[in-house]
Write a structure and sequence with these properties.
Mean pLDDT: 92
Structural class: alpha+beta
Helix content: 10-25%
Number of domains: 1
Order of helices and strands: HEEEE
Distance between the termini: 19 Å
Strand order of the largest sheet: 1-2-3-4
Length: about 70
């Protein structure tokens, strides 16, 4: 599993959510920006943007193109 996906999952569970992300969760690129998309069979659970300094920022709204 990618290090960024692992870190995003840790942040997701620390925030109190209980739905389990699937193995299809991954790092995706859109407009030269990288995002970690956590998803399961129900759809997207959370999206984190990977900032230039390596930190993750959880997004309330994200580009629809990264859901594909």
């Amino acid at each position: 599993m990618d290090e960024m996906v692992r870190r995003a999952m840790a942040a997701y569970f620390r925030s109190g959510w209980i739905d389990q992300p699937a193995n299809t969760s991954s790092v995706r690129t859109h407009n030269k920006k990288e995002y970690v998309v956590l998803e399961n069979v129900r759809g997207v659970l959370a999206v984190y943007r990977i900032k230039n300094d390596g930190f993750l920022k959880r997004l309330k709204r994200w580009p629809a193109e990264i859901e594909d």
